Amino acid sequence: MRITGHPVLQFSRGKKIKFYFEGEEIEGYAGETIAAALHAAGVKDYHYSPKLNRPRGFFCAIGNCSSCLMEVDGQPNVRVCTEQVSEGMKVRRQHNKGVLKP
Amino acid sequence: MTLIKSGVPSRDELSTVIPPRQKLEKGPVVVVECFQEIPCNPCETACKQEAIRVPNINDIPIVDHELCNGCSLCISKCPGLAIFVIDETYSPNEALVKIPYEFLPLPEEGDIVTALDREGKVLGDARVLKVQDGKYQDRTAVISITVAKDFSMEVRNIKVRG
Amino acid sequence: MKNREIAVIGGGPAGLTAALYASRMGAEVTLLERHSIAGGQLVKQTHKFFGSQKQYAATRGIDIPQYLLEEIERQGVEILLDANVLGYYTEDGVLGYEKDKKFHVLKPERIIVGTGATENVLPFANNDLPGIYGAGAVQTLMNEYGIVPGNKALMVGAGNIGLIISYQLMQAGVEVKEIIVRGPIIRGYGVHASKVRRMGVPINTCCTVKSAHGSTCLEKVTTINLTENREPIPGTEREVDVDLLCISTGLSPLTELLWQAGCQMEYVAELGGHVPLRDKNMRTSQESIFVAGDASGIEEASMAMVEGMLAGLCAARDFGYDDGMFNELHYDAIMQLNELRSGEDSEKIRKGLKECLVKEVIR
Fold first, then answer.
1. Which of A1, A2, A61 comes nearest C140 by C-beta?
2. Among B72, B113, C22, C70, who pairs with B158 as Cys (CB 3.0-4.6 Å)?
């Protein structure tokens, strides 16, 4: 859920952006990170650990901890807490260690 | 239970900041509920009467209640939201209490709100007399409420009704 | 190879102030910040700051970066955003950074490291469930991106960060069910605790998280009480229904670059972990490297700004730059730090600094 009224802050959101999460269309705003847009859509589990299949999500929000890794446009291990959404982006949950493209 | 164990000052701790009775009987006066030596002095900077002094930045504010005229300029400047102004002369049965408030929705003048104490417990009803929320306050609204006089030293928060 | 007089790494309160004073003295400065906006932690601090006027007391943290940035831009500092410093190679004094998906290099003669800190984790069963976040991370979601991070929250930790963020959660419309603290006392400022208590939020001391529960995300937390020696008391388990658990149990300085650069490091518990040895001018054991802010030891933003000022002034003076105000400003910064750290609540910091403050190397 996005905050609309706040006693101290005013949120001026950029242009609306459409991107895809697991094939479904999701809305985001220019300047938002993938994690923020997914959170607003109620999605908190971003990948599943390779061996024990444990759900993992956000933790530090600033790119330090590697808890939030997802597959973005075919590229695995993207830190979605710092990666911004872009039009037509395809985001998927990751279930393995991922193989980086050469 | 003391401040450091519970977040709520004890009666003893409060007694160090409550203004003397004869000053409370004269008009509005400040209560600075600040008990620890932390580096902070915007209350001193805000006070035009020099009633609040912080000689060393780590000092607990030294309040000369006699010099305070209840102007309330300090309320929105305290980063700890720890300053209140009490006027027990408002009416025979009621006191006027000014509190800092940083939540939405802000009440409107004339609203009846719920008066809460330092633990967030309900004291009773309060009526909102004034809401100051301009540039000077910088989003720390100063809300003037009237409450039963017995609550003047207890009410420190409000709950706005739907 | 691009040469530069001073590179400031980190655009938070320490880095911004360092860049400001170094450039004011006359030095050529490049500021590298990995985020898309400068300000560091300041961009999320919606509350009014403490300290004195010199440290922007009574100004909201979110409003401070613009003042610093305006002056920095006027002084001609090169500001590189989305620039992630990846390493410092001591053999040839080269700084590598990633920007626009490319690797770049820079050769600065002096470096000021203002890389801040990271949040600590708390070990307990299922602490990896989505919905369990660092308190600062929750603050980023709320205050930077305007996202409600959950509906019902439990905060672990009652230092300033835990208390302030509990208050900010309520300002964003989240119900904070309680704050739990492992020790017997509240370590944050009493005034911050009082603000949340009068909202009806209980603060329970001698209590910690035993385990978290949920299938894909957090649904419940089991807490357990502790003795004053932090031993769990069996039979005191309690379940709390929350979808958000905020961990605020301390910060650790982010010092990778300093290690890589060969700075002498010391483990100082009072300062949050491993920190570099430094002299009173914030110069590390490596002559060309200065440090400022949380990377030098966990404190408040006001100290970070004054340390940045010191590091900026002294790094610029290494080149002989002085607009005539050096001595006065240097003295003022030292006095500000002494004053801010002289209170009872700074005893821990003073003790910690004794272990890593070294005599100035006379050059």
1. A61
2. B113
Q: Which of C50, C64, C344 to mutate to test the interface with B (most CBs of B within 10 A)?
A: C50
Considering CB atoms only, which of B5, B80, B121 is closest to C205?
B5
Per the rule left: phi > 0, alpha: psi between -120 and 50, beta: everything else, A61 is: left
* Residues C240 and C276 placed together within one structural domain of the fold: no
Interface test with A, best of C126, C145, C219, C251 (most A CBs within 10 A): C145
CATH number of the domain to which A60 belongs: 3.10.20.440
Residue range C210-248, pLDDT digits in tens:
999 999 999 999 999 999 899 999 999 999 999 999 999
pLDDT digits (tens, 9 = 90+) for B6-33: 999 999 999 999 999 999 999 999 999 9
Q: What is the pLDDT of residues B91-123, one digit of tens each?
A: 999 999 999 999 999 999 999 999 999 999 999
Mutate to test the interface with B, among C53, C148, C155, C198 (most CBs of B within 10 A): C198
Chain B closest-CA separation from residue A39 CA (Å):
23
CA distance A39 to A11: 16
Say yes or no to pLDDT of C267 above 90. yes
C258 and C350 share one domain = yes
Stated pTM of the model: 0.93
The residue from C247, C279, C295 where one domain ends is C247
Q: How far apart are CA C351 and CA C355, in angstroms?
A: 7
- Asked if A2's CB is within 8 angstroms of C142's CB, the reply is no
Distances (CA, A) of C297 to A56, C52, C55, C110: 30, 21, 18, 21
User: Shortest CB distance from C141 goes to which of A7, A36, A55?
Assistant: A36
Count of the separate structural domains present in chain A = 1
Domain total of chain C: 2
The answer to whether C200 faces chain B, any CB pair under 8 Å, is: yes
For position C168, which CATH number holds? 3.50.50.60
Domain boundary, last residue among C214, C247, C280:
C247
Same domain, C133 and C233: yes
Q: Which residues contact C152 (CB under 8 A, 6 or more apart)?
A: C174, C175, C177, C241, C242, C243, C244
Chain-centroid distance of CA C79 in Å reads 20
Q: How far apart are CA A47 and CA A54, in angstroms?
A: 8
- The encoded tokens of residue C71 equal 């002056």
Residue C41, Cα to own-chain centre: how many angstroms? 7
pLDDT single digits (tens) C332-341: 999 999 988 9
- B8 and chain C in contact, CB less than 8 A: yes
Could you give the residue ranges of the DSSP H alpha helices within B11-157? 11-15, 21-24, 42-46
Interface ipTM: 0.97
**Are residue C229 and residue C208 in the same domain, yes or no?**
yes
C neighbour chains, 3+ CB pairs within 8 Å: A, B
C320 vs A: CB within 8 A: no
Residues C333 and C271 reside in one and the same domain: yes
CA distance to B8, B15, B77, C38, C188, per residue, from B59 (Å): 20, 18, 17, 34, 17
For residues C43 and C104, membership in a common domain is answered with yes
Q: Domain check: are C125 and C243 in the same one?
A: yes
| Torsion-angle region of C338 (φ positive above 0: left; ψ -120 to 50: alpha; else: beta) | alpha
Whether residue C363 lies inside any domain: the answer is: no
